[in-house]
Amino acid sequence: MSYAPEIASQFDIPDLEKDKLVGEVIRYILFKTEQNSGCPIRREELTQLVTAKGYKQRNFPSFVIDEAKSKLSSIFGYEMRELQRSRPSAAANTGRASQSQQSVGDAKSYIIISKLPSDVYGKFVEDKSSVHMSGLTFVVIGIIHLAGGKITEENLWHHLKRLGLHENEENHPKFSNTKQALETLVQQRYLQKEKVNGPEGNIVHYELAERALDAPIYDKIKEYVSQVKYINVLDDFCAALFLDRWCRKMQRHWNMIRYLLLLRLYMGQVCYLTRRFVYKLEL
Amino acid sequence: MRTVKREIFNRNNRITQSSEQNACEARDAADNSGAEDAFVKRRVLRSKYLIFKNRICDERDDISKVDSQKFRTFIEEVDSLHQLVQKPREQVADAEALFDITNTLVTSVKAYNNDGLTPSDFVSCLLRDFGKEGGPSSNRNEQSGSIRWEDIGQVVSVVFSSAPGCRTMIGPMNTELKERKTVVHRKRAKPTKNSRPEELENDSGEKTDTDKNMATMFNVLRKNRKAKLENLILNRKSFAQTVENLFALSFLIKDGRAEISVDGTGRHLVSPKNAPSADAIQSGESAYSHFIFRYDFKDWKAMLDSVAAGEELMPHRLEANEARSNVEPDSEFDGSQAAQPSTPIRKLCRNRGLVIQEQTVVEDSPESDTNTTTERTAAIRRGKRKLR
Question: Where do the MAGE domain residues begin and end (chain A) (predicted)?
Answer without folding.
Answer: 64-228
